[in-house]
Amino acid sequence: MTSSPYRPTEGVLFTDQYQLTMAQLYFRRGLHERPAQFDYYFRRYPDYGRHQAGYAVLAGLDPLLEWMEEVRFTDADLEMLRSQTNARGMRRFDDAFLGWLASNGAFDSVSVRAVREGRVVHANAPMAVVRGPLAVVQILETAFLNHLNYPTLIATKASRIHEAAGGRPALEFGMRRGPAFGANAGGRAALVGGADFTSNVAVSHEMGVDPKGTHAHSMVQVFMALGYGELEAFRAYAEVYPDDCILLVDTIDTLDSGIPNAIEVFAELRQAGHEPVGIRLDSGDLAYLSIEAAEMLDAAGFENVDIVLSGNLDELEIWQIRAQILDEFARAGKDPAPVMGRLVYGVGTRLITSQGHEALDGVYKLVALEQDGRWIPAIKVSDTPEKVPIPGEKQIWRLYDSRGRATADVVAMPGETLAEGEIVLHHPHREGVFRKINRQEITRVEDLLVNVFADGRRTEPAPDLDELRSRRVADLDRLDAGVRRLINPHIYHVSLTEQMKQLQIDLIDDARGR
Amino acid sequence: MTSSPYRPTEGVLFTDQYQLTMAQLYFRRGLHERPAQFDYYFRRYPDYGRHQAGYAVLAGLDPLLEWMEEVRFTDADLEMLRSQTNARGMRRFDDAFLGWLASNGAFDSVSVRAVREGRVVHANAPMAVVRGPLAVVQILETAFLNHLNYPTLIATKASRIHEAAGGRPALEFGMRRGPAFGANAGGRAALVGGADFTSNVAVSHEMGVDPKGTHAHSMVQVFMALGYGELEAFRAYAEVYPDDCILLVDTIDTLDSGIPNAIEVFAELRQAGHEPVGIRLDSGDLAYLSIEAAEMLDAAGFENVDIVLSGNLDELEIWQIRAQILDEFARAGKDPAPVMGRLVYGVGTRLITSQGHEALDGVYKLVALEQDGRWIPAIKVSDTPEKVPIPGEKQIWRLYDSRGRATADVVAMPGETLAEGEIVLHHPHREGVFRKINRQEITRVEDLLVNVFADGRRTEPAPDLDELRSRRVADLDRLDAGVRRLINPHIYHVSLTEQMKQLQIDLIDDARGR
Fold first, then answer.
1. A-chain residues near B86 (CB < 8 A)
2. Residue B377 contacts by C-beta under 8 Å, 6 or more apart in sequence?
3. pTM
């Protein structure tokens, strides 16, 4: 009996049926242990409609690799497959294949080179290269895509929200409308991508951050239903949490009731030797209310009390709130810092669902097979040029210019080095579209893919959250401001070297001529 | 040591932090065991932009109730909470509270009345009424919403896809771009809502349906990379799966290569005594290709071979494909049945993400508290009338007219019966907006809420998939065609009785006057 820390629906059968039918076919044909390479990449940056991403942040890698380490074909899994029958009532998967799966079907024989989790990644440049026995890496496809597509989507959104927040904290609050247990992967990805905290208790503990949250409208309602008022509710909260007191002020009326009551309780707290932490606004014109709230708090001597904003926020809403405040203060000739510097953004549904762009179109494509000890590149032709993958073995370089800025991600042949003099960088899909740069402009060539998984084990300890975040921060620092822009970003160049382009063209010609 | 079948991130701490801080506050105030009632409902039907839902299908209830039966505050959970500290480094949750949580914090004392899973539900009419000790039902909020919002969203989308497919099968294929492990809840909800099958292996087994899937482009590519062609790939597939042979025909060229090769292999299969099952089209103009494919298959004597369509389908795409085919055949004066009757729809990303409307806005609102053995209604006032809940204890009726059609869901006071003669049905939010019906027009009054959970246990065995689906089918049969429409549906009436409306108005006046 092989045991698993995962429930059956989250174990090795967390996959699409066709991976298993193909695996058995390979098994019958003796192709199942043939080494194969699949590349993972996405084709389009998230486009939220009015606004678009110019980059993405890779997330979900460490949980994926941990899952790959731990899952096994358990007896229960094998029994499920044994029970499947075809249209004639005969078993779909035979004992020989199931026996092979039991001893070889997990991911002990797989190796992964990947961009480190947390880093900035770009469309069409493979973020991971997976190698292993054909049947095994085929079975892996679904889980591999599932574990990376959604987290990368959410980390990207979180990074944009972080950018919009201009250095002030952003909190992830979306669990209740998140996608069932997927909300956990979403919460973790938000932390990796730029959310400072999450309200998700278990995920916070797993990631080593303090879970955030104070109270809901329902707490005020409870006191009201029992014949008390908002003031008594706030007082009760302050009594239990005197050093973490953030009060939600919009249950009745923000300016007439919530803030005056909060100020009264804050004064009592200070009297007792505690400093209040903040108020939260969850409805109405948040820019206007922030200004008014700041003024009222300042007048009462609470200049350091944070103002937490929530209610259908995303990067554009945050940007708009900040712009509106800056405008107001500019018009009045006053310094906006006392308001801007105390804002905190609570972001819920629109982050955990990546509103406007619900799925990253990440794909996992067969690009090479080993034959007689050599890797043979594989290709899939398509009438849509964007769907033609970059074939074969490869390395991915990130090129930095004289300012230290990333200027292109380049897909090169194995063993290839950056040429001297004039370098031609080809568009990954459009033939005849290229850009020339001079080698001298390039101050650094970085290999993006590193070994992260070999012989069924992660090659490095799990990175902690600080490490994951610092990778993103460093990469964003090295990214052009135009590419980071929230709306209509510049297109970052992902290119092929001359040699790689030629291989792609030759293989397409071969395939079309076949 | 209390054990749990769930990982820590999927156990009782799968919740928002503020539920715990509020729970401790109630504990300190002696309010934690005060009976409270929260209602679960959504405010808006999904609106996908160009098209909108006029109803929703409740899903996720049985998995939620199972989770509520099984989760406990484990030692590990309590240790996490014990480790939390406030801004001054002092423990946030004290031992008395944690001790109470350990013995009383799980959901043994909760009862739930709900609409049965799989049934058609409407905006603003509570789908579930939860009662239990205040602190416990508060902690439950996040998981309750999370377990129902996303599945209901996906079941609703699946129902629309089922309707668009006009009686032909729809398959759920979206795992790879689904939301991490949330894809399991999505796959299950799709099955409940109207998908006939899913590619998700483990979820299929859990739900007792055959997982669907045959092969991907990569299988054809493998054969090509090894120097063979599409024909050899198809032949290999047919050899291993002679009675379940569905071939993906667009790897090279659908009409010039894929279909002719498939027909050749189908002829060989038939020669060997097997009947081929289908082809799959995954790109291009699916309506046009379906017509061409049907003609080629018919000419070769394979009139019963299915044509599976996939590639960014949703209800509108399916509708458009069917309309285009009907048009073509009408113009030619031919019977479209030989094409229409063999189509099967594979739906991926747009179903599992509910593309265009990413989250159901389901809420869980405090509506009553017990005091001195009586239920006191609670309300939350808001400047947005749609946000004012329907207060207090209640029953939900579905009224059927003389045709047996559902004509309104009505929220009534407990113990209230439908009046005789003229009945006034009030808009749930807009004062003075009402509709009058005559009691005689109503042929049946159905109580929608049934006891589903009491004393920590489900009151009935888990419903099987057939049962879940039959509920939806029966409800849709009783729903007006205008409400079922894919675009601009009629608005179904959800109303309050005269008594309930009066209670709502009185409470709002009270709260505003406070």
1. 241, 243-244
2. A225, B367, B368, B391, B392, B393, B503, B507
3. 0.97
